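Sample 1 of the test manifest.
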Amino acid sequence: MAEAERAARERMVEVQLRGRDITDERVLKVMGDVPRHHFVPEDLRHQAYADGPVRLDKGQTISQPYIVALMAQLLELEGEEAVLEIGTGSGYQAAVLSRLAARVYSLERISELAVQASEKLRKLGYENVEVLERDGSKGLPEHAPYSAIVVTAAAPEPPEPLKEQLALEGRLVVPVGSQDGQTLERWRKGKGGALSQERIAPVAFVPLMGEHGWKTDHRPFWAR
Ligand code: SAH
């Protein structure tokens, strides 16, 4: 069984990642190692290695493997960093990041998801990840600054606290736009503290709800 899943994962890496523009060898290796099928809901396991997002409980989604890999690659991790993730969801992306950096703090506003993800990560041996139930739009000042911050939900604007909590030369990757569609952006803090922005690709994420995110969920009821 584990062999079939490993083979599916290898195909996913070759076709969906290497076949596109994922070139960071560390990211490719980790995407080939982390068992995505353990993070998708049991009745949707057949979708675990497909080229698309998978629905989670509570109207949330685990991103398409390519998007997870792209965001990880954009963070330019070398192994020693502290990373902040906003939107734990299933915990899959946190698991991927934990194998690319020294420490991952992952924030989730929905209690049930935070608890489930935390238990799963512990059970699977991802010990350098800490999941906290928080409004992640405010970041996590206690452990700031971070070399890399990734927001896995759609923000109307890059949240100010996250820009502040970025280390000098740090990278912030965030989908910015409306609740219907966003542009994946990378913000970089220079040596002197100035921020610069790059627009990477069109994406579609569930909304970042909270003080520095959206106040209301505008999605139709059937999409929540
Ligand atoms: N990275 C996740 C997928 C994230 S889906 C994975 O690999 O599975 C987006 C998640 O962001 C959802 O779980 C949603 O509840 C969470 N979220 C939305 N707004 C948030 C906020 N302000 N703080 C923390 N989490 C938030």
